[in-house]
Amino acid sequence: MKICFLVPDGVGLRNYLYSKLMDEFPDEVEIMLLTVLPQEVVKDVALSHRHKISHVAMTGYKESFKGKLLKEVITYARLRYNTRKVQNDTIMINWTRKNFAFWTRLFFAMAAFIGFFFSFSYKSIEWLEKQYSRHLRSTGYFEEQTRMLNEHQPDVIFSTHQRSLDGSVIVEAAKALGIKTIGAIYSWDNLPKARLLVRTEHYVVWSDYMKQEMADYYPEIHSENIVVTGTPQFEFYFNKDLYMDRAAFFAQEGLDPNRKVLCFSGNDLTFPCDEKYLNDLAEALMQMPEKDRPQVLLRRAPVDLSGRFKPVIEQFPELIKASDPLWKTYSKGWSFIVPTREDIKLLVNVALHADAVINVGSTMAHDFAVYGKPAIYINYDQPSVTHWSAVTNNQYQHFRSMPNKDCVIWLNGKDEIAACVNKAMNGPLPDAETRAAWFRVVALQPLAEASKRIAGTIMSL
Q1: Is residue 317 classed exposed, middle or buried when 0-12, 13-18 and 19+ CB atoms within 10 A define those classes?
Q2: What are φ and ψ of residue 366, in 5° steps?
Q3: How many CB atoms neighbour CB 393 within 10 A?
Q4: Is the distance from CB of 37 to CB of 161 less than 8 angstroms?
Q5: What three-state secondary structure class fits 398?
Q6: Of 198, 210, 402, 407, which residue is least crowded by CB atoms under 10 Å?
Q7: Could you tell me the strand order of the sheet in which 356-359 lies?
Q8: What does each C-alpha distance from 146 to 130, 169, 174, 279 come to in angstroms?
């Protein structure tokens, strides 16, 4: 059996290539990487697993005006349809929030205008999807990928991300050749966003909750083709070979071993207020008695290379220590910002040794939940920023998976910072079962067996 891992960007590297997933396949399985990742990353992956791994470099798909218009019309129609279906207006924020040039804005306005009329009937959306599939199969890129797949003859293609434009055509070519296809839904918040571009025949998802979301948003996908496996994302936290001694970690990060640690985890630049929240946090903590004041370990988002936190760190050098993600940038764009094995170890130890995490609605709440540690969700807005809202962000559809509000500590105003931090550091907190309930909804337990379940699902096709 020959399995092709379709890895269209650097994001899938950690979960699917650096995890133990490949080692869960029988020895006789051949593994092929079809990826944009540079050769040095591919070599590192090959040296990390017992299987012989071949490599095929992905070429890029240049999208035509017709294809792009069809794709965006479908996205807008689905977002409008989903908004009405679940009665949550925040879904439409996924349409676009960027300040585009005039002609780009005009293009998206046209897509929205057309998509609005298709949004009232799911059959109309399915019709659009069929037209889009036909369009992809009419392109030169489809013919090129068909030839490539014929040359390498994989039995199964496993796609590590559902939003890849290149991957959508490659999977269409695979289906046309009768090659089995299976895709991972990359993250717990992805499905309401109407960006399921890679339309594989089978899917693996994190949880029963996500499987129900697939049924809600994509009813044409049969339930038996959606398998709940969990995600390898959290497996690293159980690998004790990655653990550092507390004293060694504190020395590495410049932390005081006699004080507690609050991790501030940043978001990407679509969250424009993170540095303001960090500043609010620092000002509030400096008003606390020194003996009660935790130190702050800042972990910015790996794709945030803006330097926006630097002035705050410089203002509070004794309070805030930066733990920069150890990712590499190979080219422009998110697809080429790549995690490293060293960063996996760093992230594991941040969660292992910090006492709590604070952020705006980040998945890091779940990373800390692996070790039973609390998360503070920022739930107030910055008066100087009118085009974005943390309060609105916390009403996004994926937060409706939260079974109770006590799963995190809600920070509803700047004046509550000290009290919320004190609660996270010293209690009292709701019981462990109450706090863990959300994580059990989000990711199938036991967490450490996700790779084994995914490999078993792929082998069963």
Answers
A1: exposed
A2: -75, -35
A3: 21
A4: no
A5: helix
A6: 402
A7: 320-322, 295-299, 261-265, 356-359, 375-378, 409-411
A8: 19, 9, 7, 53
Q: How far apart are CA 429 and CA 410, in angstroms?
A: 12
Q: Which CA distances in Å does 88 have to 17, 335, 393, 417, 423?
A: 36, 30, 12, 29, 31
Give the residue from 151, 145, 148 showing the smallest Cα distance to 170. 145
Write the pLDDT tens digit of every residue in 268-300. Answer: 999 999 999 999 999 999 999 998 999 999 999
Instruction: Return the amino acid letter for 19.
Output: S
Q: What's the pLDDT score for residue 332?
A: 66
| Tokens 């409706």 belong to residue | 400
| b/e map 114-135, b = 16+ CB within 10 Å | bbeebbeebeebeebbeebeeb
pLDDT tens digits, residue range 3-23?
Answer: 999 998 888 889 999 999 999
Residue type, 244: M
Dist. CA 201–CA 204, nearest whole Å: 11
At 434, the amino acid letter reads T
pLDDT tens for each residue of 216-267: 999 999 999 999 999 999 999 999 999 999 999 999 999 999 999 999 999 9
pTM of the model: 0.95
Q: pLDDT confidence of 37, banded at 50, 70, 90? A: confident
